[in-house]
Predict the 3D structure of the following.
Amino acid sequence: MSSLPLEKLRRIAGAPNVLTGVDCSPYVLEGRTPEAVVFPGSKDDVVAILGLAAEAGIAVTPSGGGTKLGIGTPPERLGLVLGLKRMCRIIEHEPGDLTTTAEAGIPLAALQGELAKRGQWLSLDPPWAERATLGGILASNASGPRRHLYGTARDLLIGLTVVMADGSLVRGGGKVVKNVAGYDLPKLFIGSFGTLGVIVEATVKLRPRPDVDRLVVARFHHLKDAGGAARAITGSDLVPSALELLDGEALRAAGAGEGGAGLLIGVDGIAEQVDWQCAEVSRLLAPLGLVAARVLDGPARDEVWRARGALGHQAFGDVAAVMKWGVLPSQLAEVLEQGGAIAQRNGLRAAMVAHAGVGIASAVLSGGGADINAVVAALNEWRAMVVGAGGHALIEWAPLAVKERVEVWDAPGPSARIMKALKEKLDPRGILNPGRFVGGI
């Protein structure tokens, strides 16, 4: 512990906010226990802590609610976990401008609750909103079903305050939507998984809350029919807020039906528009193999969306691995069918769900007590299938024993050279989340 300036950390954050020894056990990552966990109370604390870490060459792993910590190559070293949960204030809310500035550690559900008091919301719906923090969502570019209409974190960001690896404080962007001067540097940190800097504050665009918000659950006998229905919706006059394609296992796990396949179609807006769209869904899909359609609202709607978000952890009682795929939307149904066949061939079960309009899928493997060799084989076959279709694959979650045998990230392409150059420029000592990103960044 001699390399870690514990007394200085305690003076900065307060002794109760620095954990060591057995108290660090909840923050064990990929079998590695951090030397210490520190919870700064302000951006000035973060500046001081990163300055100490840079001086001592101590690795720092930023952490929000911990919902995305499982993504990444097992860390080369785990020195200091920097938890931002104490930094959870809303700094400014301008309802007239539809903007808000908040600290990075505020949970999304808490932020949405405050914005709702003024009839507004941040149009992001990643899973685990009670735990997922604003900074973590931005750092992982997390999103949910409503990205179909409202986009991702990159689309909603206006300004950012980041503490760099050397402890310097950098601000980019602004506090108003019409801020277009200069380079859009804040976007550089979106999806960087804390490898370039620690996000401490963010200014984001808001929207008025819709008058009505409903969910249409459409069921089909076959996945290819559901895929065809999704394409029909995207080519129609309908403007759904979400369009999710589910295989039979995912449909069951979401509590939306048994067997076959399905679509979850989110519709929001003014009442008359929503009523028309819900009726139009059934009319449009009736000749395309639709078995049944039901409209959910209130708690029933929320429970299906919650269960859909939790699929990666709760699709089965014994989840063995979760892989994220990116393919052309037109390929989704075929790729999901092939993925299910690969799982069966290896003696496993799979649940698969996809953002049908953007071609992003999550595939969950059930362990079933199977030999780890079967899990490894299925993941390798999945990656080969997706890459062969011109797409990309990422292991979102897997136990350490699997990650030691299957690469988390695809082989880095030509862009890796630029990414490594940025990392070396912004974090020359390699202390921020070292080795966890693409290409060992």
